[in-house]
Write a structure and sequence with these properties.
Radius of gyration: 22 Å
Strand order of the largest sheet: 3-6-7-2-8-1-9-10-11
Largest sheet: 9 strands, mixed
Number of helices: 11
Mean pLDDT: 94
Bound molecules: iron/sulfur cluster
Number of strands: 11
Structural class: alpha/beta
Length: about 300
């Protein structure tokens, strides 16, 4: 079972939820602790809570074109085929812009003079190792200044495969853009962490649209609850999205998290709450699979 923990915006407590849920499951099933993937490769921070010992590391990059000016006739075919404008012919010069290149290889394939070869271009690194509670931990780190997170996330998900029946928890980047879609893709369930404010509601709406477009069931955890916020509850009811947990706005939680403590360390009773959330998700997925079997 693969669950992605996402949020429409940053700072909602998504990583706090993801790490505490992982540790709750690890304590529940010590013989098969979950696999945790921190896919927020632009600002990974789950390691600050789960304290993994990194045992393996791999560089991630793309193959980008290198033009041999001695062979190039400046015909412009490579620039025509590149939909990302990552290669351009300016007079007697053919220029490559590595930061725009998606490594698709089309220009190399179509160059009539075989003037293009491909060279690796590093974008970041992926790391893995055991973490707190026996959790299998892995994360990606995008190099500073690199604009494309998706290849690093894709490689991270490919590199670390779960064991049979191992639960996978993916901590998604904030927002609703391509890196989020890449993280959510292939998930069985999306757990959306939000806060009871108009901004939280606005961004939750966008995040729900991503889950719905990918046809993945979703549930909500509301963090920093400080009194009722009817609009959010009404929205979830209208969308038929269950609210699985409410975490109060509390100084002790904020201070503890700022010191690198997990929610289940600050308030151990949350272990029960997160196991309950997990059971709810498992039950939804079981019902979904029964319905699919019946319709086949
Ligand atoms: S397609 Fe090949 S020959 Fe034509 S401009 Fe590009 S690199 Fe040069
Ligand atoms: S590899 Fe693809 S994206 Fe990169 S320059 Fe060539 S055509 Fe453009």
């Amino acid at each position: 079972m693969r669950i992605t923990i996402a949020s429409g915006k940053g700072g909602t407590g998504k990583t706090m939820v993801a790490t505490s849920m992982a540790l709750s499951l690890a304590w529940l099933t010590p013989d098969k602790p979950p696999l945790f993937l921190d896919c927020d490769v632009e600002a990974p921070n789950a390691h600050l809570f789960l304290h993994p010992s990194v045992t393996e590391q791999q560089e991630v990059g793309l193959l980008i074109p290198l033009v041999d000016e001695a062979k190039c006739t400046h015909c412009g075919k490579c620039a025509e085929v590149c939909q990302y404008h990552a290669i351009a012919v300016l007079g007697q010069k053919t220029l490559v812009f590595p930061q725009l290149c998606h490594g698709c290889g089309s220009c190399t394939m179509l160059c009539p003079e075989a003037a293009i070869s491909e060279v690796p271009d590093r974008m970041g690194v992926i790391e893995r190792g055991p973490a707190a509670g026996g959790i299998t931990f892995a994360h990606g780190i995008l190099d500073v200044g690199e604009p494309m997170a998706v290849p690093v996330i894709r490689q991270l998900k490919k590199w670390v495969q779960p064991q049979p029946d191992q639960v996978v928890l993916c901590d998604a980047p904030p927002g609703t853009s391509c890196p989020v879609v890449e993280t959510v893709r292939g998930s069985d369930y999306v757990l959306l962490v939000t806060e009871p404010t108009p901004f939280g509601l606005h961004d939750l709406n966008l995040a729900i649209q991503v889950a719905s477009e990918l046809d993945i069931p979703a549930g909500v955890i509301i963090n920093r609850v400080n009194g009722p916020y009817q609009a959010l509850d009404e929205f979830c009811a209208r969308q038929n999205i269950p609210v699985l947990l409410r975490i109060p706005f509390e100084r002790a939680i904020a201070e503890g998290v700022a010191q690198g403590k997990m929610l289940v360390e600050i308030h151990p009773e949350y272990t029960i709450h997160f196991r309950h959330v997990f059971s709810e998700i498992a039950s939804v997925l079981l019902q979904q699979s029964i319905r699919k079997d019946q319709s086949n």
